TrEMBL record, chain A:
Domain ABC transmembrane type-1 residues, every copy: 67-273
Stored PANTHER family: ABC TRANSPORTER PERMEASE PROTEIN, INNER MEMBRANE ABC TRANSPORTER PERMEASE PROTEIN YDCU-RELATED-RELATED
Identification of the protein by name: ABC transporter permease
Top-level taxon: Bacteria
Organism: Mesorhizobium mediterraneum
Keywords: Cell membrane, Membrane, Transmembrane, Transmembrane helix, Transport
Coiled-coil annotated residue ranges, if any: none
Cellular-component GO terms for this entry: plasma membrane
Similarity section: Belongs to the binding-protein-dependent transport system permease family. CysTW subfamily.
UniProt keyword Transmembrane present: yes
Membrane topology listed for this record: Multi-pass membrane protein
BP-aspect Gene Ontology terms: transmembrane transport
Pfam family, one: BPD_transp_1
From TrEMBL, chain B:
Swiss-Prot/TrEMBL keywords: ATP-binding, Nucleotide-binding, Transport
Family: Belongs to the ABC transporter superfamily.
The protein's name in its UniProt record: Polyamine ABC transporter ATP-binding protein
GO molecular function term, any single one: ATP binding
Domain ABC transporter per the UniProt entry, residue ranges: 6-236
Lineage top rank: taxon: Bacteria
InterPro entries documented for this protein: AAA+_ATPase, ABC_SmlMolc_Importer, ABC_transporter-like_ATP-bd, ABC_transporter-like_CS, Mo/tungstate-bd_C_term_dom, P-loop_NTPase, Transp-assoc_OB_typ2
Swiss-Prot/TrEMBL GO biological process terms: putrescine transport
One GO location term (cellular component): protein-containing complex
Alphabetical list of Pfam families matching this protein: ABC_tran, TOBE_2
Amino acid sequence: MSGNLLHRQPILRRPDGVGGALPALTLITLFFVVPVVALLLRSVTEPVPGLQNYAILFGDGTYARVFFNTFLVATVVTAVTVIVAFPVAWMLAIMPPALGSIVFGIIILSMWTNLLTRTYAWMVLLQRTGVINRTLMDIGLISEPLPLINNLTGVTIGMVYIMLPFMILPLVGTLRAIDPMTLRAAALCGASPFNAFRRILLPLSLPGIAAGGLMVFVMSLGYFVTPTLLGGTSNMMLAAMIAQMIQSLLNWGLGSAAAFILLLVTMALYALQLRLVGAKRMTGGI
Amino acid sequence: MTEPFLSIRYLRKTFGSFVAVHDVTIDIPKGEFLTFLGPSGSGKSTTLYAVAGFQQPTSGEVLLEGRSLLSVPSHKRNIGMVFQRYTLFQHLTVAENVAFPLRVRRRPDAEVNRKVAEMLSLVRLESFGGRYPGALSGGQQQRVALARALAYDPPILLMDEPLSALDKKLREEIQAEIRRIHRETGVTILYVTHDQDEALHLSDRIALFRDGRIEQIGTGEDLYLRPASEFVASFIGNSNFLPAEHLETVNGSATIRLADGSVVSGVRIDQDFSHGQKTRLMVRPEAFRLRPGPATAGLAVEFIDTAFFGERRRVIARTAAGQEIDVRPTSDMAQAHEGIASSRQIFFDPAAAFLFPA
């Protein structure tokens, strides 16, 4: 009887080791590792074996421009998102909880609305004869419609709007952990509101800004729908270029190489984020 | 008349229909340690915040050396403050925290370094300059906060219940530090607490707040020995209130009848009572004696329980009228112990007792 019980114990133990993780590992291998390896292989074997695809991507001015443009858009979007998100996050952090949860709900709701719908909505608002240009012309502020769409401005507006929740959420968490009394203390120490912001609030909220910023930056790098609909042909981004290479030009090798570079950059940034989060843990959440 | 150093005049603060502070007026001479004491919601913190500039009063004036502070924003008031919660800048080291007020004032490096060293030695944390606040204990953090608040030699130091987050032993230790620092620097201190022991221990004067007004202001001894009202008497120290009927007053000395029918004369009073008015006689537990003295009044009681507290013994006694009272005789401790469950007389000096309207 007792022998039977002892025998059962290993079964009751939490599954650990490779055995328990096997289904998940199989899934990841099948649907993630294998395609990525296939991608890498394609980029160095098509049309002929060698690194010529990478040579083309890095050597050709047109592709270099697309890379540059991708990083430019991601950088601008991240910067604008931080600037817009910070006051919202701060307001959410110091708001009475009841009101705060309503505002929070509105932000989350916008996140749940279909991405394509929101992007088309921006098209309606931003186009030459759109609501914004009409209104501005009606009140006589401008005489010619502003070029708000099919350029960097349109992409930035549309993408910042989509990225805001991803910046606000981590930032609110960081800002809530800051005692407002700390800012009063800074004021009595003689710090002007600007100084208190620059020397105290900003450094203390840096972990949140870093976490949200990296998330927004990485997401922006591979964005397809919004830049395609709101951007112009002159500022094509990487995702759109990959789509074109594969769909229109059927150049799988070049498309794979571009996708692989994008993946590498994304993973490098993710590693950086992990290091920052790790460092944050070590200093006790500072 | 010379201008008081810090003057709070007819300060009033309302939140909607709620009056948090009711025309509070205090003059504070330079170098004084003044404590705002009172239960929570009595307006003591609101008054302090008006001095700090966190709350604009509804009306009234705060004057520092005759000049109004109210139109000056917090960061230009040049006031030091230590808060209830730890408000150190977590991303800066201890030394950088103390240096912060000097850095925002753009003082030269040499002066900053000298002052930081001086302040850290004042709060006895010389070797902690390179640490981060997260690595310090609560008591150490409050000492750093004190150093930071004093680093720029502010004329006034505000302290908002700075010890309430600390345990008893640490509290007493830092109280001693605060006293020493007040002595060494001569800074004028406004201190807020709800702890009467802390107030008595630290302050030159205490302003006792109740419902947005100052109930009484004076030294600890004033409040303890000459309470202006029953509230003051019950808030400061321990007290027994015996129901009594006022019979007559001659030359500020009253004769009363206690609930057990005994008549006591020679009670000192500051206000007028009518014949037969219901009153309450306040006697401090330590004012009771086990033996009669000159001019003492006797009270028939039964000892119910005693407890030993080291420096004195506490006795729970029941009067003939059935009221339980707290008796802490300063002498005759052994006798108090032996007297359990026996009916006896205890004695008090009517001149050290106070009569308040019921």
